[in-house]
């Protein structure tokens, strides 16, 4: 090796250029046999030779070919974790990081002390860890701590085809880290693993990799999959359609697992419950006497609560006995029971009932058939790890496996024994509004590439079938590939993270696909306004200004902000609130402002007069509660933010009970989410500032008058550019400007939403979270409740 690296560099041990060691692994014979069936085993030598000769290697292979589970093992055996170094693998999803670490530990017959995982606030990494699965965000944080990643001899970026923002950034960063480590003669190997062959963004990108890395293709044994399109135009109620399809497959088609793709956790649970009820594992024993009385009582109540509509419907369909929709599941907890009851109501009132029943009728009018057990399992990102692991177990003897999943099952996880895929064709994606910068989750059609990936899940072990719940014409209109996430969203959070890494000239950063210059400039401008970046010096020309705009260094405040897991605006609010005991309030406000839709939608059309009366009464109740929560005098200056604080506080006093939420028009799920986020933010604040010694006190006292004043300043500091001023009477252009506000960016009048407590107050200045256009331009926080501030 040539000259020594500068002393400032990390403490890097200098390993031999090519690890020559062979570390034996003591696998069980069964496991070894199972491994040998994987297509990637045939490529072991090719991959290891490429890794030995090149700093960067791309491995492409169909999902299930063995990339994630096997490549780390190849590297381990070849000694890439000797000398106390670690083989690091990043996953865009937490569920994959956890599941894959468990699987690899099991295959290698090693404990989770050696093959471990780390996700944001959780992990089992020890001194002994040699293979570490982590989310891409975790590795990014490690790069912030030590840019050269001295602990690693090799880093694998998994699921690169997903093009998640953090994966893209990591690839850009690692291209530089690999070069720096080479200069210091302590090489770092980078492996990029992708499920598709579409890797040109990596290989044909001179800036990213001046020498295109070799691509190793893994041939996979894929059995033919017959794709069946729906004839009908796509249905709104795809969950109901999935249910019907699974019933049909289970009753009529030969053995083989079923995998259903839905878009979200709630849908997954609802379908699981419906399927379990339709095909129970065991016939229900008559309940014990006491139980029976209980459930008879509940059944009676439930029947009473049925609407006339349902009675008429059920009467018209005598082949469905009432009881088959009303029996409570045996042995489940109260919570589940409650959920079950809720869902019953939904099933009863929703339009999907008649659809299902109609179709069941076509199938011969069978009643759910309890003699054919279906082993129904949910799978989604936030599912507890031990529950996730269940999908990999063989189903109980004599049952058929049915996994109801979100798109985590599309490429991240391969479930054994799937022969039938039911694809709703939709995916839930974060949607970012370029104008307001506010994000929301929307359900959209998947891309053709994703739909084909999903279909491919059916042909892993034998020829399979994929049922698409949409027509081939609709498929023809799908995008070919999903656009990389980085091109679809504002990037201020990313830019802040990169600046925290001392990457000042983001315009020069080797993004696999760069965001637009406008998006970069907008991000820097916002960050400068928030005080996270130093403003550029005054320069002569616009061009120069723009260039310097894209190279502003981070401030100390910016560094603190970069450590909070929320968007920079809200991070700024947190960073400012360590005064006068404001932190717990600021944390609650930020949590409540970043969760979607705190209040239930009460403006929805009602199906009956009864329902309409109910909605009206509830609207009145919510309006009254909002006035109470908003308080009087000084606290009113916090406007709807005071309402948020009041609502969260009151809900916590009730023990965060679903009944309380229901009675007061609050979304129970949002309240649970806020509670979780408050915990996370408190941990983050304590990490930056241990002397704050914060803990989550659910039952906060309302803020004092002076605290209200500070909180107001704090919120304005984050939302200062979202300011609107009331149009003065002398400026009134015409009637359309009555009670209107003016913002710097829009020519049109904007208004305070009627749901805001400031609707009648009409203060001179307000700040808003977003502007939503319905009948007028309304300033709002979330769809059902404005968050404004006097
Ligand atoms: P890839 O990363 O190429 O998509 P994986 O390495 O994830 O492939 O999977 C390889 C094989 O290992 C698949 O056939 C899959 O079914 C199997 N597998 C993965 N995880 C588990 C598990 N936890 N239990 C049983 N089999 C598993
Ligand atoms: Mg994989």
UniProtKB/TrEMBL annotation:
Residues 332-349 have a biased composition (Acidic residues). It comes from the Eukaryota. GO terms for cellular component: nucleolus. The keyword Hydrolase applies. Coiled coil: none annotated. GO terms for molecular function: ATP binding; helicase activity; hydrolase activity; RNA binding. One of its GO terms (biological process) is maturation of SSU-rRNA from tricistronic rRNA transcript (SSU-rRNA, 5.8S rRNA, LSU-rRNA). This is Probable ATP-dependent RNA helicase DHX37 isoform X4.
């Amino acid at each position: 090796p040539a000259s020594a690296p500068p002393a400032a560099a990390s403490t890097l041990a200098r390993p031999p250029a090519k690890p020559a060691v062979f570390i034996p692994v003591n696998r069980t014979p069964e496991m070894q046999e199972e491994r040998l069936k994987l297509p990637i085993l045939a490529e072991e030598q090719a991959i290891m030779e490429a890794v030995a000769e090149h700093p960067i290697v791309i491995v492409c292979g169909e999902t299930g070919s063995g990339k994630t589970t096997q490549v780390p093992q190849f590297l381990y055996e070849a000694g890439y974790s000797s000398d106390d170094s670690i083989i690091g693998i990043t996953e865009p999803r937490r569920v994959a990081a956890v599941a894959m670490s468990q699987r690899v530990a099991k295959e290698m017959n090693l404990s989770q002390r050696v093959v471990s995982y780390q996700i944001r606030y959780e992990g089992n990494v020890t001194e002994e860890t040699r293979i570490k699965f982590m989310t891409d965000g975790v590795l990014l944080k490690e790069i912030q701590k030590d840019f050269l990643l001295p602990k690693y001899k090799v880093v694998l970026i998994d699921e690169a085809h997903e093009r998640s923002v953090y994966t893209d950034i990591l690839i850009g960063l690692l291209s530089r880290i690999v070069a720096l480590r080479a200069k210091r003669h302590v090489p770092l190997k980078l492996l990029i693993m992708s499920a598709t062959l579409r890797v040109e963004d990596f290989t044909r990108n001179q800036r990213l990799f001046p020498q295109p890395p070799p691509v190793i293709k893994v041939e996979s044994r894929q059995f033919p999959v017959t794709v069946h399109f729906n004839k009908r135009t796509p249905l709104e109620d795809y969950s109901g359609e999935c249910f019907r399809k699974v019933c049909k497959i289970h009753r009529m088609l030969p053995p083989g697992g079923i995998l259903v793709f839905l878009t979200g956790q709630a849908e997954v649970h609802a379908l699981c419950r419906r399927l379990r009820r339709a095909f129970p594992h065991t016939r229900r024993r008559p309940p014990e006497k006491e139980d029976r009385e209980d459930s008879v009582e509940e059944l009676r109540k439930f029947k009473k609560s049925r609407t006339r509509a349902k009675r008429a419907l059920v009467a018209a369909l005598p082949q469905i006995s009432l009881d088959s929709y009303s029996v409570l599941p045996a042995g489940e907890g109260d919570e589940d029971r409650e959920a079950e009851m809720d869902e019953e109501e939904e099933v009863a009132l929703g339009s999907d009932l008649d659809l299902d029943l109609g179709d069941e009728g076509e199938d011969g009018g069978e009643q759910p058939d309890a003699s054919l057990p279906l082993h129904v399992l949910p799978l989604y990102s936030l599912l507890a790890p031990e529950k996730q692991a269940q999908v990999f177990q063989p189903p109980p003897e004599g049952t058929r496996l049915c996994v109801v999943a979100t798109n985590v099952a599309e490429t991240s996880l391969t479930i054994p024994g799937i022969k039938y895929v039911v694809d709703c064709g939709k995916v839930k994606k974060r949607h970012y509004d370029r104008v307001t910068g506010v994000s929301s989750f929307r359900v959209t059609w998947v891309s053709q590439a994703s739909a084909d990936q999903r279909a491919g899940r059916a042909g892993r072990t034998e020829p399979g079938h994929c049922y698409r719940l949409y027509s081939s014409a609709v498929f023809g209109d799908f995008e070919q590939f999903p656009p990389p996430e980085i091109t679809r969203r504002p990037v201020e959070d990313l830019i802040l993270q990169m600046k925290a890494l001392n990457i000042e000239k983001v315009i020069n950063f080797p993004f696999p696909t760069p965001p637009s210059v406008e998006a970069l400039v907008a991000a820097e401008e916002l960050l400068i306004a928030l005080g996270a970046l130093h403003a550029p010096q005054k320069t002569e020309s616009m061009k120069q200004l723009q260039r310097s705009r894209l190279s502003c260094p981070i401030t100390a405040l910016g560094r603190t902000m970069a450590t909070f897991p929320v968007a920079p605006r809200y991070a700024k609010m947190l960073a400012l609130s360590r005064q006068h005991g404001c932190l717990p309030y600021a944390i609650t406000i930020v949590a409540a402002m970043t969760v979607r839709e705190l209040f239930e939608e009460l403006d929805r059309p009602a199906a009956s007069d009864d329902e309409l009366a109910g909605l009206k009464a509830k609207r009145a109740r919510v309006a009254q509660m909002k006035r109470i929560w908003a308080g009087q005098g000084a606290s009113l200056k916090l406007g709807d933010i005071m309402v948020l604080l009041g609502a969260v506080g009151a809900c916590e006093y009730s023990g965060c009970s679903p009944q309380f939420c229901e009675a007061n028009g609050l979304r129970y799920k949002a309240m649970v989410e806020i509670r979780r986020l408050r915990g996370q933010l408190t941990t983050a604040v304590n990490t930056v500032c241990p002397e704050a010694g914060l803990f989550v006190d659910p039952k906060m006292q309302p803020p004092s008058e002076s605290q209200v004043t500070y909180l107001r300043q704090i919120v304005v500091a984050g939302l200062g550019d979202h300011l609107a001023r009331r149009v003065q009477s002398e400026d009134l252009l015409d009637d359309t400007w009555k009670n209107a506000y003016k913002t710097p960016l829009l020519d049109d009048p904007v208004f305070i939403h009627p749901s805001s407590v400031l609707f009648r107050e009409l203060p001179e200045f307000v700040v808003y979270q977003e502007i939503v256009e319905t009948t007028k331009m309304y300033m709002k926080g979330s769809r059902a409740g404005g968050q404004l501030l006097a």
